[in-house]
Give the backbone structure.
Amino acid sequence: MQEENKSPQSEVTKEEEIDVKAATGTASKIIIAVIILLLIVGGILAIYFFSLKPASERKMELSKHEDFMASYTAMRATGYDEFWKCVFPLATEEQANSNLKLENIIKNSISQNEEGFGKHILECLPSLKKHLDSSKEIKGPPEYSESLKELPSALEVLYSSWKILGEWFANAGERNKWDKRLDDVTEKGWGQMYVDAEKRQKSTDETMRNARRYMKFVTCSVGKTYQELGGKTGSISDVEANLVASVLGSGGICSSPEKAMERFDYIESKCVPYLTSPEPPPPDADWDFVAKKGIYYETRSLAVIAGSWEGQDGCIRAARKEKEKVMIQNLFNGWVGYKKVAKSIEDIYRNKIKELKK
């Protein structure tokens, strides 16, 4: 009877409780799903926004490297590249990628007009000097610091090497003048010193003037006066023997091209003017010694100085060839040094751009 007395209202309440529980469970699941979805979206957005900063930084860094390379390329174009095209309009750098190739290009350039080519180099040099000066001011990202620090030094060596070579070739005309004077020494007997009364009367003033020129040139070249060459005896034979030894003996000026080159600059700057100056040097104590001893100086030692030095295979020509060889080698070394630094800058840029564009 009691079961029959259950009211319909109690049945409805139970059903409602079940519906509420079901609805609550569904709502919880929905909330959890929404939270998970929000977390996923938030994570994606976080990753996206965090990725925006490095990308912008890469873009800025890329721009810095590109701006630097644009400035560097412009500096080189109006400096080194312009200089090279000026000096060798028909030769590329690749054609001068060895010392021998560079030497051949230079020899071909001077074959027609050595002095003219030297002056041409000097006319082109301002472009290289401009590059040198600009290299001291250019700035770039930190990656280039070491190379940019080395760049001015490398360009200084290259500039100096070209300047020395240009001045050397440009001075060819002056060297030709004293070549001619050495020919005069041989052909016109500048070594003749007529000092006794009879021969003095037969000699001319010009003969004596040239004799003094030649004597000063000889003693300046070997670094000893006739009195010093004569030693303790002061005999004519000792003078001549010691003079020959000073030039051709072991360790003498003309004993090797290297030895000749060591003395060449001094002879050219200090001794040659005695041959080429309009007025001969005045008589001095050494000339008085020559006059007192009655030295007649013409044959053997004259051949040593004039023949050994001026001949095609002589001491002076050998010294000049050796000097040019060394100057061209120094130039090539300077060129290699500069190219090494320039390549390091280009390699850093290339690798950095590749890295930033990944």
User: Anything to note?
Assistant: Residues 193-198, 296-300 have pLDDT under 50 and may be disordered. The chain is about 80% helix and 0% strand. The longest helix spans residues 8-77. The radius of gyration is 44 Å.
